[in-house]
Amino acid sequence: MGLDEDALEYHRSKPPGKIEIATTKPTNTQRDLSLAYSPGVAAPCNEIDEDPERAFEYTAKGNLVGVVSDGSAVLGLGDIGPEAGKPVMEGKGVLFKRFADIDVFDVELDTDDAEAMIQTVAAMEPTFGGINLEDIAAPECFEVERRLSEKLDIPVFHDDQHGTAIISGAALVNAADIAGKELEDLEVVFSGAGASAIASAKFYVSLGVSKDNITMCDSSGIITEERATHEDLNRFKQEFARDIPEGGLADAMDGADVFVGLSVGGIVDQEMVRSMASDPIIFAMANPDPEIAYEDAKSARDDTVIMATGRSDYPNQVNNVLGFPFIFRGALDVRATEINEEMKVAAARALADLARQDVPDEVVKAYGDQPLQFGPDYIIPKPLDPRVLFEVTPAVAEAAIESGAARTEIDTDAYVEQLEARLGKSREMMRVVLNKAKSDPQRVVLAEGHDEKMIRAAYQLVEQGIAEPVLIGDADQIESTRRKFGLEFDPVVVDPETADVADYADRLYEIRQRKGITRREAEELVRDGNYLGSVMVEMGDADAMLTGLTHHYPSALRPPLQVIGTADDADYAAGVYMLTFKNRVIFCADTTVNQAPDADVLEEVTRHTGELARRFNVEPRAAMLSYSNFGSVDNPGTKKIRRAVSRLQDDDRVDFPVDGEMQADTAVVEDILQDTYEFSELDEPANVLVFPNLEAGNIGYKLLQRLGGAEAIGPMLVGMDKPVHVLQRGDEVKDIVNLAGVAVVDAQQE
């Protein structure tokens, strides 16, 4: 099947379309329904009648955007009408929800009269927190947006105009910097004089481009003052008429620094590119075919050609999804009355800044593992970069506050945490730990410090103030990698081949001399990053350690167990995963270390896992799992669990509820606990699940992760005398940063 056939099947599969309405409150009982509708709904109605602003408190208005279109200018399809344009508007709703957690009603209007559209949309103001105008033909779109912006007290945004302007504006800021040119000095040529071109030209002026340096061409050639005098040009085109000789696009491009294409494909050739100034910037954004092919533009000359298109199969895609979800998110969250120029500029500047930061592995993988590093082929972030939400959105919200458009204010730090929570419960939970880590950063040894991911993680740990990383590895290799990725920091490096490690060898020999290690072997082992890092932590020259990225779990765990050992109150280490669901967090143990735990091991694992949960500000409720419920099966396997439970319940150190043995559904389903086993010590579902053996634990957490849609953080090692965590082979930079944050909080507890 081709793309068209695949798309048709995608849209018609049951249920047809791409969006649905879901409830956000319980509707399981008669009382639920009486609260949702009659008679309970009268209470919020009366409150809103008394003060209309309370609609933001009692209804979904504050998170609801209307995507409004007449289908008169659908991208690549033209005037196909409102009903044929509906799949596009539904798609817009998908993007709003996927990238910024904003709900959408798409509204297709069967009218070709601008005044009728204005009056209809204005009458719907009580429904929405904002209006996104879409695919409305020029020049009517200018008037529709202007009038609605004046008339309504909620944000109105025509994405076809401003989305392209903002995203390409961010690209322009970075491209000019790479080319070593100042914005105010750029000679900019536009091909196309429609809504997006005119809006982009105006926006570039807001960024610092001189209006006198902008030359705009339509299908008849350069828009000059002479043409404006004698031809019937609309007033929007006339605004960019220049007092220069008439000519075509080729004339305009001669000597230009920047070409901005918002017209039709194939109208620019290599000779026109060669006529431009040094290190030209070419934004060929016609879709699906750009004004000049990417390969042709790049090969037209020997200097640097910075190229962007509207296509996803080439570098530097100008994609509006980088803008509108996050702009509306910021505007809605401060209840802005408009989306003004200051907010748009803030969005563009934030996007430009984000492109200069190290790119997460998850983004690199999503785009085929191609290198993504600030430079000519990476001047704007990728649409799937999750950081756009909490980089661009706060910038927009702050600009709304500073410009007077906001009706409420925000605490920026708290707001970023709220935004991260929208990306998933795991980000919310990790933010708790990372904030604790930032309050008192500790020295964390990265035992595989030569690895590219470790070096990038070290940079982020320093940049975010989470930890003071110590990289163990070849100093020259680490420096080469740092330079390769443009990481501006001066890492602490311990090179085992050149550093004086005699004291560490002495200590390793002292610890292991009666456990099969000779002096010479100690001197050799201490050159190994895992052993060296372990001794550094044991001697107090570092506070915590991460390893395992390039080793199998058992071989990575062995050195810290031999050198650091378990805590005074522990005889066993254990591995714990934190699984985050939409509205629930569960800690699973033991998933990585103890194969066949007895009652003593289960008791320790439960106690230490409960302590770990509290580091995430989660109050533990522990269930010890089995295939038996509270004695329904009596055999050695269930008896050992009951012994562990009895000891824990009698232990004064355990100040959280523990019960078992119980089946997994009993542990996590409130109705079963309360109705069938009302005697249980758990008055709410468990959030600490202790498995009876390693096999069950490993299988259980992976099934929850893959089939239950949980995000997994870990494994986190508990029971060690000093903080040590063993990464999984193939973990990404964000996983290293997260576990380093956990290690720092562990060290703070020490």
Largest sheet: 6 strands, mixed
Helix fraction? 40-55%
Separation of termini?
A: 60 Å
Structural class: alpha/beta
Domains, number: 5
* Radius of gyration, CA atoms, in whole angstroms: 30 Å
CATH superfamily of the largest domain: NAD(P)-binding Rossmann-like Domain
In DSSP terms, counting alpha (H) and pi (I) runs of 4 or more, how many helices? 33
What is the strand arrangement across the widest sheet?
Answer: 7-6-5-8-9-10
CATH first level of the largest domain: which class?
Alpha Beta
User: What is the typical, i.e. mean, pLDDT?
Assistant: 91
Brief rundown of the structure:
The chain has 750 residues and is of the alpha/beta class.
Task: Tell me what you see in this structure.
This protein is an alpha/beta fold. It folds into five domains: 17-24 and 60-154, 3-Layer(aba) Sandwich (Rossmann fold); 162-312, Rossmann fold; 321-423, Rossmann fold (3-Layer(aba) Sandwich); 432-564, Rossmann fold (3-Layer(aba) Sandwich); 574-719, Isocitrate/Isopropylmalate dehydrogenase-like (Rossmann fold). Helix content is 45%, strand content 12%. It contains 33 helices and 21 strands. The chain has a six-stranded mixed β-sheet. It has a six-stranded mixed β-sheet with strand order 18-17-19-16-15-20, sandwiched between helices. A hairpin with a 2-residue loop joins strand 6 (214-218) and strand 7. Helix 9 packs across helix 10 (195-207). The protein is globular and about 100 Å long. The model has no long low-confidence stretch (mean pLDDT 91). Residues 161-401 form the Malic enzyme NAD-binding domain. Residues 16-149 form the Malic enzyme N-terminal domain. Its EC number is 1.1.1.40. Pfam families: malic, Malic_M, PTA_PTB. GO terms for molecular function: acyltransferase activity; malate dehydrogenase (decarboxylating) (NADP+) activity; metal ion binding; NAD binding.
